[in-house]
Amino acid sequence: MTQDTTRPNRSGKPRQNASGQPRGERGPKPAFRGGNAKPTTNHRRHRDEPEEKFIRRAIPDIDTPFTRMGIDARVAVNLPPMGIDAPSPIQEKAIPGIVEGRDLLGLAQTGTGKTAAFGLPMLTRLLNIGRKPEPRTCRALILAPTRELATQIAANIDAYAAGTAIRQFRVVGGASINTQTMRMERGVDVLIATPGRLIDLIERGAVDLSQTKYLVLDEADQMLDIGFIHALRRIAKMLPRERQTLLFSATMPKLMEELADSYLTDPLKVAVNPPGQAAAKIAQGVHFVNQGDKATLLAEYLAKHREELAIVFGRTKHGSEKLSKLLEKWGYKVAAIHGNKSQGQRERALSGFRAGETKVLVATDVAARGLDIPEVAHVYNYDLPNVPENYVHRIGRTARAGRDGRAIAFCAPAEIGELRAIEKAMKAPIPVVGGEVPFEAAKIRERGGPAGRGGPAGQQPARKRPARRPSRAPKSA
């Protein structure tokens, strides 16, 4: 006996489902978008794949200062739309040697055009290979100390390589390692990475460096400061001996010399902007103020240029977050980036800042290098950095792309030592633009300037500090 599934309701009409058919009767299978055939591709994986990029088939016939230095015309044609018409000093000195295949040691501050100095000749050499990379391999590896710098380099490489078949990929912490592993299965031409995440991928077997012929270490001194020296040594053992290595650094400490000796072979040495020297177009100043009055003073400065972009540097993550919320409460359009922010939060903050949706970016030293936003007109050192060299990197976020910029440092009485160390590293005093000069700072400058050296003829040299008293009284015999 069969069961009747189309029993009528009280009105005598058969019961119907939502599609208007009698209950119990199956209708035809719904058609898939784009046709009746069932798709054979994995939609989730397909969304992660990059879109097909435009590839310029014909080689442009152009003559520019970059093509005359050996840069491929397919790369050089992308530079004028980016506002790059002539090489910067670091590019003029470094590109010819890199095109020839020599190792390079570059000493230059941020904002001098280093990315183009190593990116353009690297892309020129990669274009001549003519075949796709093998799975899980990369032909060129660029290591950067922070996620923000890696993101900036990736954006620049994409712009330089527009219209070519060159593909880059960025791997940093804070993003899905599974997605990064999946993407590396196809191999890439240029891999931009932070050392920590690269080690994670290598341990998973997702990255093979045996075919990497080009290695770039950008901001190598900061990688050493962060503590990546052991990761760099591990990575170096996995690279082929026959490779071209480019090392860029803003300073040259002793550990950096050892790193250069182990990585480079007969390198070409290029120096632009001596270490500790700020860009000439930055108008600097120091404002002496009590620690508790800094927030009010900062608001007074920001009120003078509400529609211009400004970066405020703090020393701690907690302090920067607290300051950003205070400024937001006072009516300013503020975003914050620091170590406690996720990668997504950092990228959204930087995207809004670049677009001008937020006018003030409060950051720790995580953003001191790598941020290339030409519209930044003001930099405020809310807290002076513990490392004097970081001061130069901080104020280097302004006066970029030939523009003028202003950098103001707030100095509390407890920060006189940091100010003295900064002026000593820069070998020049910072002009006072406000506040009362504390007695200690005035005496230091009277004794011979920022470094404590003897001043003009006739003045007494700085006296040596007395020996520190022992913390404990010596035990009696």
Structure notes:
With 477 residues, the chain is an alpha/beta fold. It has two domains: 65-271, Rossmann fold (3-Layer(aba) Sandwich); 282-446, 3-Layer(aba) Sandwich (Rossmann fold). It is built from 17 helices and 14 strands. It has helices spanning 43-48, 65-68, 73-76, 89-99, 114-127, 147-160, 177-184, 195-203, 220-226, 229-238, 254-263, 294-303, 317-329, 343-354, 388-395, 416-426, 439-446, and strands at residues 104-107, 138-143, 168-171, 188-193, 214-217, 244-249, 268-271, 282-288, 309-313, 334-337, 360-363, 376-381, 405-411, 432-434. A seven-stranded parallel beta sheet has the order 3-4-2-5-6-1-7, with helices on both faces.
For the structure shown, list the relevant keywords.
seven-stranded parallel sheet, Rossmann fold, 15% strand, globular, single chain, disordered C terminus, 17 helices, 2 domains, alpha/beta, 477 residues
Question: Could you outline the blueprint of secondary structure elements for this entry?
Answer:
Elements: H1 43-48, H2 65-68, H3 73-76, H4 89-99, E1 104-107, H5 114-127, E2 138-143, H6 147-160, E3 168-171, H7 177-184, E4 188-193, H8 195-203, E5 214-217, H9 220-226, H10 229-238, E6 244-249, H11 254-263, E7 268-271, E8 282-288, H12 294-303, E9 309-313, H13 317-329, E10 334-337, H14 343-354, E11 360-363, E12 376-381, H15 388-395, E13 405-411, H16 416-426, E14 432-434, H17 439-446
Parallel strand pairs: 1-6, 1-7, 2-4, 2-5, 3-4, 5-6, 8-13, 8-14, 9-11, 9-12, 10-11, 12-13
